[in-house]
Structure formats: C-alpha cells, structure tokens
Hints:
Blueprint: E1 16-19, E2 26-29, E3 37-39, E4 46-48, E5 56-58, E6 75-78, E7 81-95, E8 98-109, E9 113-120, E10 123-129, E11 135-136, E12 143-146, E13 149-168, E14 177-185, E15 188-194, E16 199-207, H1 209-215, H2 239-264, E17 268-278, E18 287-288, E19 292-294, E20 299-307, E21 312-322, E22 328-341, E23 345-350, E24 352-360, E25 363-373, E26 379-388, H3 394-422, H4 432-449
Antiparallel strand pairs: 1-2, 3-4, 3-13, 4-5, 6-7, 7-8, 7-13, 8-9, 9-10, 10-16, 11-12, 12-13, 13-14, 14-15, 15-16, 17-26, 18-25, 19-25, 20-24, 20-26, 21-22, 21-25, 22-23
Helix pairs in contact: 2-3, 3-4
Amino acid sequence: xxxxxxxxxxxxxxxxxxxxxxxxxxxxxxxxxxxxxxxxxxxxxxxxxxxxxxxxxxxxxxxxxxxxxxxxxxxxxxxxxxxxxxxxxxxxxxxxxxxxxxxxxxxxxxxxxxxxxxxxxxxxxxxxxxxxxxxxxxxxxxxxxxxxxxxxxxxxxxxxxxxxxxxxxxxxxxxxxxxxxxxxxxxxxxxxxxxxxxxxxxxxxxxxxxxxxxxxxxxxxxxxxxxxxxxxxxxxxxxxxxxxxxxxxxxxxxxxxxxxxxxxxxxxxxxxxxxxxxxxxxxxxxxxxxxxxxxxxxxxxxxxxxxxxxxxxxxxxxxxxxxxxxxxxxxxxxxxxxxxxxxxxxxxxxxxxxxxxxxxxxxxxxxxxxxxxxxxxxxxxxxxxxxxxxxxxxxxxxxxxxxxxxxxxxxxxxxxxxxxxxxxxxxxxxxxxxxxxxxxxxxxxxxxxx
Length: 450
C-alpha cells in the first residue's frame, strides 16, 4: 500500500538543542517543536521538551539498556518519502511467565508527520496511524474489517515500555503499560493500543530486514528473521491458489477428452458364448474357445462374465492367447452372489463382472477357461463376452493423480506455514477452513500490493 504525498525531502534546516538539567549533556530536537518529551542520551532522563525550563519528568533507573539497530538521526527513503529516525523505545509483554520484547522506531518527516518501524526477532513492520476506525465484524472483536479486508484477532497483551531514547510527540514514560491487540491479514496487521479512556489504531505492513538496511544504508547485514511472525506473508504467496486453478482447467480438459473417447470409441463385440459348469462332474473342467479376430491395433479388450448364481460362487481362470505368437494374458475373476432375510432383506456380491485388458495387439485369439466352484452346487450357467475398442479411464486417473501431486504438496506447505503462525496466537489453533481462508486473504493482499 503506497502512500501519496508531496515529493519533498526533509529540508536542510538547523535543529534545536537544549541541555539536560540532570547531567548537562546536549540534547538535540529534530521534530521542529513537535516533541512533547525527549530522552537525554547521556543519563536517559525523560525531559519536558515543551517547557522552556526543561524540567526532568522521570529519571532512568533501569539497568538494562538496548542499542537501537537503526541509530538515531539515520535517514532513509521508505514508500517514496525520506524519513529520519528520531526516537526508539523497547517494549515488552509477558506471556506464561516468559518476557517477549521488540523495538519501535519513531520516524519523522515535516510534510508527512510521524510513522513507525517495529522489529521483533528480525521481522519488521512499517506502521502508520489509521485515519478511520476499523469496523467490528464479530462479538468480542474476534475479527475487524478495514478497507475491504477482514483481520482476525491474533493476540491481546499488556505492553510495557522498558527503555526509551530520543524524542516523542507524546508523554512517554518508563514502565507505562497499555493493552495492545493485534489483528492480522498477512502481510498487514491492525493494532489497537490504549486504555479504557482512549484507544489508538495503526496499520502495519510487513517488510524484510534487507529492505530496511538498503533504505537506511546501514552497514553489515540485518539480523535474520526467526520463526514465523504474525503477519509475515507466506513465501509461497498465491502459488497454491494458482496451482489449483491450473489443476482445475487441466482436469476439465482431461475430462472432456475422456468423455470424447468414451463417445467415439468403436466398441465391437468380438466373442459371445454361454457355458454350463457342472461342479459335480468328473474330468478336466478347463477348455478352449473357438478362435476370434481382434482388428483394431493395440486397443483395450473388455471381458464380461455373467453367471446364474443364487447363494453360491464361481471362480474362472482365464487366458487370452494369441494364436500366431503364443503371447498370453492371464487373469482370474470370481463371481458370487448371496442374499437372504435377517431383520430385513439383504444381498451381497453381483452376478455380473467385467475386466479390461489394456493395449491388446490385433490378431487371431482364443480363450482358455478353467472354472472352479463348490462341489455341492451342481450346474452353474454362465456366459462370456469380449468387446474390442472399449474406452479405459486408466490414463485419466493417472493424469489426474499426477496433476494433484504439486497442488497437494504446495497446499500442505502453505497450511504448515499458517499452522506455525497461529501457534503463537492466544486465539488457539485454527481449523483447516480457517487456514484456507487465511491463504485466500493473503493472496488477495498480495494482489492489492501489486
């Protein structure tokens, strides 16, 4: 989200200086009289910048000190505007007896006012005050909506100021505590901060440390980002969404081709015959059929078996044999059917069975059939039918499966990333639907940025 404004830089004017009444050190003011408080860099006393007598408002008593990663007075261009770092504060929250801290940098431009940079474990955000309030979308403010985007509540905690340096356009104090609530819609985060009397809202947008270092021409390399931050965009972006879109179109194309093959396939019955198998008869039950000819080259052959069964079964060992080459396709089929009445009518099995042999060459063939069955059954009537040129869905199933592999893998990586994000939330782990919704919102956000 780019900000508009005059294409002007910070003017080269003299800054105001004053002396700290506590230690006598020189304190520089850069915000052209807009500072309310300023912190002495020598003794870290908080001074009243609006009082000509420069009173000491609070003395620094905390032993721990933090050096800002971006030195005060640094200038850098962000969103097309030149900013100067004039203040820094270290803030902390405590969760389950564990203290988490982050840095906040106050930026100033005389034409644009104030902005902020926040940094936590190498994750940066460029923060602007909101010009209008977001709209609550659910009971308890679990979600809010701002500029046609829905933000989900991520965390609520009491943030305490642990360290300050520089100047600020508000009355800053060591140890002051405010309730902070974050709502995320990667790569953006909405934050509310304040007390029962007053609440301020701001909008942050995720930035990489590399971009911050480049903007302010800082030496060395930025600290590496650790873990997944609350509004950090997925490194995959909207790739999973695009992959599923491509999969859908390719699936439709494959489906149309499969339907076309099914409609135009030259199905031709090449062999049909009925037989009787007497399970109680002696002698060899196997036999061979008369010869038949398969005309179409390398096309599937469907073998259908229909048996007159009632609470019994028949097992058939088949072999489709080429008369000229002796090449054989061996396969077996079991046909069974049972029915009865037990607290209602029931049935199991089927009297009909079929199997398709793929890519059978043309030529003269015969079937060798070897039936088996229960010796107590008696005679079983069955028929065998061979059809040439039948459509087969094998290629369609394989194609759809192969197309699914990248889509599922990328989606799983995105879901895992979102899972790691929400592990740090006090809202609990989201369900799959919530994670997928987050991915969609993130994709929408990426498009808006572009």
